[in-house]
Structures are given as structure tokens and as C-alpha cells.
Write a structure and sequence with these properties.
alpha+beta, TATA-Binding Protein, six-stranded antiparallel sheet, five-stranded antiparallel sheet, flat, disordered C terminus, DUF4132, DUF4132 domain-containing protein
């Protein structure tokens, strides 16, 4: 079964630079070694300003963009619990960025059955996993689903098992905060008000917090989009639309369909509900602590 391991110094690809120096990228760090082969603690100015260094910085920008794009794609699979063809995973597995993101995701066959933690792909395109019995197994499935944690049965047991195996995920899946919709919601309700009234000294503090957590901000709302049961749904949490340096107060959380129509809460699926509440909770947590300020004044 194919596995991955972190790169070592011998894996670095060195490029000839000026005056016998050589350059390489170690992750996002530019390294330099002299003509004797000794890696230097810093890159000399003439090397740092060379055309070779400029080229590597361009490569680094491409790699960073590539990583963002891969991360967004894998997260979209997770947020939709979308079936992914095994052939697609096989094609991208050799790419270190894809491999790092996919390794140890918990996946199940799209047609049902037991899954496990993704560990590799064989020459026949079969998906290799570590199953919940801690055994290596090959999934005989054309498509697998990176399951959103709110849909994983016995999630606590799966999380505990992952800890025992020492599994870490580049894209948080099992450690992702989940929120289950109450069994009963108010008839006709279209919004959640639990996260309203959160005060921020400046709107940009709220928008900055939303963006740091990966949410889009549009028209006064922080937005999170998911695809559930083939339907696109947006969770929208009001954070304000005044000037960035004005104070603001958060409002309601609602969900809309592709036609911008608010959904009744009873029609919001488990993934959209969980992700919407998660978004509102993360942003609301950054509000001013008005209770503490009142106590101190």
C-alpha cells in the first residue's frame, strides 16, 4: 500500500545560482548552499537578488496558489460529502500537495459499506485504507466519499480510534466542530437568532475574523456554501455593511437556496446546518466581552 513520508534534505532540488552558489525551496523557505556544499543560515544579498532566486520565488507563488486550489477542492468534497472517482484520486496521488491533503481522510465507498482512513492507491486504481479494525484494506469501489463528520455514525468512537493510531489530517475532518439540528424547530422559522447581538468595535474586526476562518463576506453577510443532496445551499450570517471602521452588531443566521430564497429551518440539511452554526459560532466568539467591560467599569 502506498504511503507518504515528509521530505528530507536529500529530497531537495538544487538550482545553480551565481558564483557557485545553489538554491532550493524547502517548503516556503528559500535555502542557499555555497560551492563547498554547506547550507548557509541566510541567503547572501547577491544571491537573493539573482534571476535564479526570482524564478524560485515565482515557483513558490505558483505552489502556494496550487495548494489553495487543492485545499478548496478537497474541502468542497467534504462539505458536500461528494462521491469522488477512485480514478481521480489515483491521478493526483503523485502530487505531494494532493497526497498530503488526501492522506488519512476518512472515506467510505459511495455505494455503501465500511470505509477507513485513506492511505494510498495501487496500480489498479484501488483505494487503500486503514479500516476501523486497524487493518490495511483495499476498497473495491469506483467512487469514495470523504464523509462530513456530522454524518459519521459513532463519531466519538472514530475520533478516539484516530487518536490511538496517531492520525493527523491536513484538512480537519474528524476534529471539525459539528452541530446537530434540534429534533424540533419552530414552525415556519427561517432564521436562528442565537448569535445575534454580538458587538464589534469595528466592522473590519468582524469581516477579518470571518475571512481568517475561510468565509466569504458579501452584502453584509459572512457566507458559507455547501452542496447537500445535490442542492447548493448558502448559510448567511449578518455582520454589518457600514464603513469598515464603524462599530457593528451581528444579526440573524439564515440559509438560502440557489434562487436566493430563504429556507425554512426544517428544510435545512444536516451538513448545511452544522456548517452554518459553526460559521456563526466562530465569528460570534470574537465579539467584545461586554459583560467583562461592565464589571470593570
Amino acid at each position: 500500500m502506498a504511503t507518504t513520508s515528509p521530505p528530507t534534505a536529500s529530497d531537495l532540488v538544487w538550482t545553480d545560482g551565481p558564483d557557485g552558489y545553489a538554491l532550493a525551496l524547502d517548503g516556503t523557505t528559500l535555502l542557499c548552499r555555497n560551492a563547498k556544499g554547506r547550507t548557509l543560515k541566510s541567503v547572501p544579498k547577491k544571491v537573493r537578488e539573482s534571476s535564479e532566486a526570482e524564478h524560485l520565488r515565482g515557483v513558490l507563488l505558483w505552489l502556494e496558489r496550487h495548494e489553495r486550489e487543492c485545499l478548496e477542492r478537497v474541502e468542497s468534497w467534504l462539505l458536500g460529502s461528494l462521491p469522488v472517482p477512485a480514478s481521480v484520486i489515483a491521478r493526483v496521488w503523485a502530487d505531494p500537495t494532493w497526497c498530503e491533503l488526501l492522506t488519512d481522510l476518512y472515506v467510505v465507498p459511495a455505494d455503501g459499506g465500511d470505509g477507513g482512513f485513506l492511505r494510498g492507491v495501487d496500480e489498479r486504481g484501488r483505494i487503500g485504507v486503514i479500516d476501523l479494525d486497524a487493518e490495511s484494506a483495499w476498497l473495491d469501489a469506483d467512487r469514495v466519499v470523504p464523509v462530513h463528520p456530522v454524518l459519521i455514525e459513532d463519531l466519538d468512537d472514530v475520533r478516539e480510534f484516530a487518536l490511538e493510531l496517531g492520525i493527523t489530517q491536513r484538512l480537519p475532518q474528524l476534529t471539525r466542530g459539528i452541530h446537530r439540528k434540534p429534533a424540533a424547530v419552530a414552525a415556519g422559522a427561517t432564521a436562528v437568532e442565537d448569535y445575534s447581538g454580538g458587538e464589534f468595535e469595528q466592522l473590519r474586526h468582524a469581516t477579518g475574523r470571518a475571512q481568517r476562518h475561510g468565509f466569504t463576506v458579501r452584502g453584509g453577510y459572512a457566507v458559507c456554501r455547501v452542496v447537500e443532496a445535490g442542492r447548493s445551499v448558502q448559510a448567511r450570517y449578518w455582520i454589518g455593511s457600514d464603513a469598515p471602521d464603524y462599530g457593528t452588531e451581528t444579526g440573524r443566521l439564515l440559509w438560502v437556496d440557489d434562487d436566493e430564497r430563504p429556507l425554512a429551518l426544517r428544510d435545512v440539511g444536516p451538513i448545511a446546518w452544522s456548517e452554518g452554526i459553526r460559521m456563526a459560532e466562530l465569528i460570534h466568539a470574537g465579539r467584545k466581552n461586554t459583560e467583562e467591560e461592565t464589571t470593570q467599569s
